[in-house]
Design brief:
This protein is 43% helix and 16% strand. It has 20 helices and 15 strands. The strands form four sheets. The protein has a seven-stranded mixed beta sheet, with helices on both faces. Helix 7 packs parallel to helix 15. Bound molecules: pyridoxal-5'-phosphate. The site of pyridoxal-5'-phosphate (PLP) has 16 residues, from helix 8 and strand 8. It is an enzyme of class 2 (transferase).
Amino acid sequence: MPLKNLYARLPSVDRLLNHPLLEKVLDRHGNAALAAAVRQTLDEARQHIRSNNSLPRWAEDEHQLASLASQRVSTRQQVRIRPVFNLSGTVLHTNLGRAPMAEAAVEAVSRAMREAVTLEYDLDGAGRGHRDSAISELLQELTGAEAACVVNNNAAAVLILLSTVAAGREVVVSRGELVEIGGAFRMPDVMRQAGCKLVEVGATNRTHLRDYRQAINAETGLLMKVHTSNYHIEGFTHSVSEAELAELAHQHGLPAATDLGSGALIDLSAYGLPAEPMPQQMIAQGVDLVSFSGDKLLGGPQAGLIIGKKSWIDKIQQHPLKRALRCDKMTLAALEATLRLYLQPDRLVRQLPTLRRLVRAQPDMQQQALRLLPLLSHFAGNNFDTAEQACLSQIGSGSLPVDRLPGWAITFSPRDGRGSTLEALANRLRSLPAPVIGRLYDGKLWLDLRCLEDESAFLANLRQADPAGNPG
Ligand SMILES: *Cc1c(COP(=O)(O)O)cnc(C)c1O
């Protein structure tokens, strides 16, 4: 058939727009979005005709074309950043947005989003109208530091710290601490970006105070420690404590800084968790500047916190990079609300979701597994052996991968032993209205229950996929 006749078999944009199937779509999404989708659908049909010299099967009747246009509009309108059930076994999962926020933080952010706020506005005229003042005062109280500064994340904190304190000068760091975090953040690269000259001292496994001392010269601007959060050197090792390093720095009229990575404002070992260095300890040991993340163990929004000597913090606040790296009102509102929870440490474990999930007791998760097993077994169907069993969760986000938390999981083993069968189940779970993210390991799919708090929402979500699904 001549091409011209094939094109003529396609309806016009107007005709397709008025198809009864698209009436509701028009109501919901408006004329502009629908018309664009109709045009794109017809364009695709024309392209097919041009390349194949035939009318595509899906363009043969108008009902089908209308239905394709309708799908196109809804796909385009679908929100891409949406809630999931994180059953991956990693509590602070960077790809899943790290720390879930406390209710108090959620409320503070919604209020700040809707209305004007006192971001840099001083109600009592006491001259504290700086955007970091509220956070700074809280951090002073919680850590004993003289002042604090808040930026976009901890990578930004390290960058502005180095740029302010030691641009054009030498920064002395132990060879054993030149960390890479999640690929894009490498200490040597950040140093270069900040205009500092990195001076590596010691050996990978052992660095002594004398190594730092011998590296100090007229060009030295800073002695620095970096917490080796995501790896651990064992065996014949030695490193210099922050207290020793700060003392050496001060003897030479230099500042000392430490990048703690996660940092924990409470003693995690008191909760039976792996100990993590605390910013307040570093301040007490005389370190001039300490940086850490807002959305790692602190359990707040993405942010980088720098605490320390007021004279240095004031300089950081005045650095031109601060304007580029500063936080917006939503982040600051969430961070303030989160830090306020730390003023009531005895309630923290209930109010801070990150901590609450990290400390969940194994029997509690096992009980939950037993409750969920029938429905999940039904969901998976006959091709799988579904079981509940002990597992090990990870803290995540640069915490030590070797520190594991005993938990409980539901596991699925494919009866045909095939990876593709397992992949298909993982896909079905990810395709639920609220995607369920598990972990493939050891030939099984694991749903680690540590982060499953809203059990009824989880059940309702599963039932939506499988209306017949009825446990027991
Ligand atoms: C995680 C981490 C960073 C980066 O922190 P972000 O908040 O992710 O930017 C920097 N240094 C160390 C030691 C870390 O563990």
